Amino acid sequence: MSLKDIKNIRNFSGEGFFELTGASEYITLGSTESINVNHDVTREDITVSESGIEVVGDTDVTSQKATGSMVLRETAARNVAYAMMAQRGELTQSAEAGLTLSGAAGVGSTYDLDRLDISITSITDGTDPLVEGTDYELDAEAGILTFLTAQPTFDVVYECAAIASGDNQSVMNAFSAAEGIEGRLMVIQRQPRGEKRYKYTAKIRIYPDGALTLHASGSEKATVPVSFDVIQDDSKPKGKRFGILQEVKNG
After folding, report:
1. Alpha-helical runs (H) found in 74-204
2. Cα separations (Å) of 190 from 11, 33, 100?
């Protein structure tokens, strides 16, 4: 490659945006590690006979399909939902008091109090109060109680705070969108040098594409791998129904 052609080098990565079907605006997917799009066409040759010899007279396109994959760098709730085939909803919770839990516990026994934003009113071994940090630990936000000492019997009274939709917490029920999540993808290419870059848009349906890593030791990056099918978009003119790649000026 000659030096004068360096300005034409392009790396198709950048920020992704997704508009859920029925929504009125795009939301960001964050920075994308990679985006790949594959176009496949199945053709069938139509043969004719000339002087007793079969030759290809024409070719019909019998099917066409576009698929792709993305690796998203951000594990925001909107991205995790795609990897769980789940619709993302607003998490809400009513304030409750007088909730109770009783039983026996060994060292390390852990209980899910089935609420978030917990505060303990009282916790005893049946008679005497237990001491936080010595007898038990509480992850109040997650509602997780862990015993540090064995308790042949224990009694807990606790309450939880209200969580409103405006608190910006999400709930995602796995497979609540088992058919995939449909909407419109837009990718704006980052091109720090050169005169032009690309803008890609397509109507797609998103699916998981590999394991969603919620925890990993070491220096591994937390990423969200997803794949997608490009859906025929009948709102576009013929020839633009399986995605559009536009060359735009690099201002």
Report:
1. 77-83
2. 7, 12, 55
Cβ distance 121 to 76 under 8 Å? no
- Residues contacting residue 155 through CB under 8 Å, at least 6 positions apart: 100, 101, 102, 122, 123, 124, 126
One-letter amino acid of 115 = R
User: Mean pLDDT in the chain?
Assistant: 86
Distance, CA of 190 to CA of 200 (rounded, Å) = 12
Burial per residue of 161-189, b for 16 or more beta-carbon CB atoms within 10 angstroms, e otherwise: eebeeeeeeeebeeeebeebbbbbbbbeb
> Longest Cα pair distance anywhere in the chain, in angstroms?
104
pLDDT digits (tens, 9 = 90+) for 115-146: 999 999 999 999 999 999 999 999 999 999 99
**Domain boundaries of the chain, sorted by first residue:** 3-89+171-249, 96-163
Q: Count the residues in the chain.
A: 251
